[in-house]
């Protein structure tokens, strides 16, 4: 926002309240009430307003207080955000960033625990990235703001308290690249967002049992970085996908198809995809835990895959 | 107005001759609203329309050739043939669409108005007084986005005018059957903005009201809701048999044809002679003929255009298995790559 005065923020409680997860804390004090705009509760309209502002020269960052609320903005995200650059014959660009916290939290109930990446992935003309660490959150956010394309940035409700040393110097990450978290030889584990941590926990157990998993945080949910992913598949010949999306029509489903299409000859076993159950996330803690993939399941899956 | 009428009539002919396809919604009868409002705008002001957007595009300055080409689906169209009848856009003339779903253009218009205020107050362009016009119909006035944007615009005093083209019918749904309180202008004051009703068949009356509303917006006093009582002489689209509307109602409004009315006014007040008006009509016919010829002779979009313009930055198609960005693959520029 310092570097480019056309960058502005809009969303519910982003200004005076500092954001429901304090992502925009103190920005309104620094940049004023118009640049950090507290909107009324009208997701479809303020997202559309962000799109109109992007078409006329601004670079808005629109926040969904919880990603799930952006379901109300589906009309604008699908029809206008994704399509207008094309239907206008390339005349208008939409350099908007749509972001917000999503994913399964701690007993937030079904509606506040949604994973919208699976719903939005078919929309042509948008890019989707998921951040998972303080380092990549900053780098991806900067990249998304500077991109001329509309980008949806998925944050996770349970990852806001992570602490990490990040460089003082300016850095911008690549929106289309995946991140190699742990190189290995036996199996490729593809994951993103919070499940990265469940995977790394499982990795510790697996290493103790003598396995050598390669862990890749795909980061770019649309498009997939088929180079990083492909190189890994060519090396290990076994793929496990661990995601928080639902099974049906999730990112894992698309990833499975993409890998099968492109790297079928390199696979020694069918791709295994661990996703959340196709269940509205229950409130009860025990049920909620069984809805998402847990480290123990990841360990079992790798053991089976490597037999 | 005459250009609008002649153009739309030609569209009907071209459609039935198989030159134009899909859903085409003609503006015959409503010309006074488009002319009355848009002719008061500067080039930098923005206009947002709906699927009934051909005449808004023409009024805003998009050449007839480019609109006709777009309708024929040719690559010389204002949107390279990629938008079609319902998606007219022009960056040069600040026409921000052309939208198929009703109501979805209103937030976009609100965003354009927000940009104008932002330029003045944050970017420091003190003389930026661009206004935005949002055109939509009676059916849209029962839609959530309409009300949400009335609130946003009034709350932040955005330089926008909400122009309701109330032609009494949303395809086959009469406004009276769809709306609890059919007087749309009344909904403005409920949100803290003036609500004005005007005879949308009289271009001079529309212009009076438009002038006031636009100047209000330029002064930074905020939005206005203007309800124009108007009528479409043809069906909702060229596919609509138009069987539900009462012939007496149609006759009533046909007698109030805005073009005939203005002609009469000009002749009676010695502002123009019959012969001069006939010359204008002849010239317009030539413009429209030329537009059709241009569109006819223009090429269809080539295959290489298929993947263009999906992303402003084509890196958005991602990195392929070979490590290169997909947009660098020659098949991509040929339009045959599978993305």
TrEMBL record, chain A:
Domain spans labelled Transketolase-like pyrimidine-binding: 1-162
Cofactor(s) this protein cannot do without: thiamine diphosphate
Entry protein name: pyruvate dehydrogenase (acetyl-transferring)
CDD domains per record: TPP_PYR_E1-PDHc-beta_like
Entry keyword annotation includes Metal-binding: yes
PANTHER family: PYRUVATE DEHYDROGENASE E1 COMPONENT BETA SUBUNIT, PYRUVATE DEHYDROGENASE E1 COMPONENT SUBUNIT BETA
Listed GO CC annotations: chloroplast
Compartments where located: Plastid, Chloroplast
NCBIfam families named in the record: PRK09212.1
Pfam assignment, any one: Transketolase_C
Assigned EC number: 1.2.4.1
Functional note: The pyruvate dehydrogenase complex catalyzes the overall conversion of pyruvate to acetyl-CoA and CO(2). It contains multiple copies of three enzymatic components: pyruvate dehydrogenase (E1), dihydrolipoamide acetyltransferase (E2) and lipoamide dehydrogenase (E3).
Quaternary structure and partners: Tetramer of 2 alpha and 2 beta subunits.
Keywords: Chloroplast, Metal-binding, Oxidoreductase, Plastid, Potassium, Pyruvate, Thiamine pyrophosphate, Transit peptide
SMART domains listed in its UniProt record: Transket_pyr (SM00861)
Automatic annotation (TrEMBL), chain B:
Coiled-coil segments on the chain, per record: 270-297
CDD domains the record matches: TPP_E1_PDC_ADC_BCADC
Reactions catalysed according to its record: N(6)-[(R)-lipoyl]-L-lysyl-[protein] + pyruvate + H(+) = N(6)-[(R)-S(8)-acetyldihydrolipoyl]-L-lysyl-[protein] + CO2
GO biological process, one term: pyruvate decarboxylation to acetyl-CoA
Keywords: Coiled coil, Oxidoreductase, Pyruvate, Thiamine pyrophosphate
InterPro entries: DH_E1, PDH_E1_Alpha_Subunit, Pyrv_DH_E1_asu_subgrp-y, THDP-binding
EC number(s) per entry: 1.2.4.1
Cofactor names: thiamine diphosphate
Tree of life domain: Eukaryota
Dehydrogenase E1 component domain segment(s): 2-302
GO molecular-function terms, A-Z: pyruvate dehydrogenase (acetyl-transferring) activity
PANTHER family (UniProt xref): PYRUVATE DEHYDROGENASE E1 COMPONENT SUBUNIT ALPHA, PYRUVATE DEHYDROGENASE E1 COMPONENT, ALPHA SUBUNIT BACTERIAL AND ORGANELLAR
Subunit structure: Tetramer of 2 alpha and 2 beta subunits.
Cross-referenced NCBIfam families: PDH_E1_alph_y (TIGR03182)
Function: The pyruvate dehydrogenase complex catalyzes the overall conversion of pyruvate to acetyl-CoA and CO(2). It contains multiple copies of three enzymatic components: pyruvate dehydrogenase (E1), dihydrolipoamide acetyltransferase (E2) and lipoamide dehydrogenase (E3).
Protein name: Pyruvate dehydrogenase E1 component subunit alpha
Organism from which the protein derives: Punica granatum
């Amino acid at each position: 926002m310092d570097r480019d005065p056309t960058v502005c923020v809009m969303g519910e409680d982003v200004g005076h309240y500092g954001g429901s997860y304090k992502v925009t804390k103190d920005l309104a004090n620094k940049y004023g009430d118009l640049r950090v705009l507290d909107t009324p509760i009208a997701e479809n309209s303020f997202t559309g307003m962000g799109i109109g502002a992007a078409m006329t020269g601004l670079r808005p960052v629109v926040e969904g207080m919880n990603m799930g609320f952006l379901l109300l903005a589906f009309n604008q995200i699908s029809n206008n955000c994704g399509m207008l650059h094309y239907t206008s014959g390339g005349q208008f660009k939409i350099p908007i960033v749509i972001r917000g916290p999503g994913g399964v939290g701690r007993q937030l109930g079904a509606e506040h625990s949604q994973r919208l990446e699976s719903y939005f992935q078919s929309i042509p003309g948008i890019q989707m990235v998921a951040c998972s660490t303080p380092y990549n959150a900053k780098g991806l956010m900067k990249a998304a703001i500077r991109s001329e394309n509309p980008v949806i940035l998925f944050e996770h409700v349970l990852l806001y308290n992570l602490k990490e040393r990040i460089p003082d110097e300016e850095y911008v990450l690549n929106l289309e690249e995946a991140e190699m978290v742990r190189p290995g030889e036996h199996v490729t584990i593809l994951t993103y967002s919070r499940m990265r941590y469940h995977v790394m926990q499982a990795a510790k157990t697996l290493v103790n049992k003598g396995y050598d998993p390669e862990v890749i945080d795909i980061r770019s949910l649309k498009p997939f970085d088929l180079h990083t992913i492909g190189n890994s598949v060519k090396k290990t010949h076994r793929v496990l996908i661990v995601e928080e999306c639902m099974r049906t029509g999730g990112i894992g489903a698309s990833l499975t198809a993409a890998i099968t299409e492109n790297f079928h000859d390199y696979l020694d076993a069918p791709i295994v995809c661990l996703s959340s159950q196709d269940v509205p996330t229950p409130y009860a803690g025990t049920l909620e835990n069984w809805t998402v993939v847990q480290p123990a399941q990841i360990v079992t899956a790798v053991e089976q895959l490597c037999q | 107005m005459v250009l609008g009428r002649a153009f739309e009539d030609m569209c009907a002919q071209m459609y039935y001759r198989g030159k134009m396809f899909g859903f085409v919604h003609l503006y015959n009868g409503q010309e006074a609203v488009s002319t009355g409002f848009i002719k008061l705008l500067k080039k930098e002001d923005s206009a947002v329309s709906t699927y009934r957007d051909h005449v808004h595009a023409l009024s805003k300055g998009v050449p007839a050739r480019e609109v006709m080409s777009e309708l024929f689906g040719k690559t010389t169209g204002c949107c390279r043939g990629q938008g079609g009848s319902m998606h007219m856009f022009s960056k040069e003339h600040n026409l921000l669409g052309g939208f198929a779903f009703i109501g979805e253009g209103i937030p976009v218009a609100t965003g354009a108005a927000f940009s104008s205020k932002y330029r003045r107050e944050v970017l420091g362009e003190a003389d930026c007084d661009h206004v935005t016009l949002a055109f939509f119909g009676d059916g849209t006035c029962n839609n959530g986005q309409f009300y949400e944007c009335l609130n946003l615009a009034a709350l932040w005093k955005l330089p926008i005018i909400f122009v309701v083209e109330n032609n009494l019918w949303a395809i086959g749904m009469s406004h009276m059957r769809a709306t609890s309180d059919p007087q749309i202008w009344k909904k403005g004051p409920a949100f803290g903005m003036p609500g004005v009703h005007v005879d949308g068949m009289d271009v001079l009356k529309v212009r009076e009201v438009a002038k006031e509303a636009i100047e209000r917006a330029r002064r930074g006093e905020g939005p206005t809701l203007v309800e124009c009582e108007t009528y479409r002489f043809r069906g909702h689209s060229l596919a609509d048999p138009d069987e539900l509307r009462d012939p007496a109602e149609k006759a009533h409004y046909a007698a109030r044809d805005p073009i005939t009315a203005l002609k009469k006014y000009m002749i009676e007040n010695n502002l123009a002679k019959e012969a001069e008006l006939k010359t204008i009509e002849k010239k317009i016919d030539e413009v429209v003929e030329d537009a059709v010829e241009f569109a006819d002779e223009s090429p269809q979009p080539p295959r290489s255009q298929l993947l263009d313009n999906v992303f402003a930055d084509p890196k958005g198609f991602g990195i392929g298995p070979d490590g290169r960005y997909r947009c660098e693959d020659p098949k991509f520029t040929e339009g045959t790559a599978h993305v």
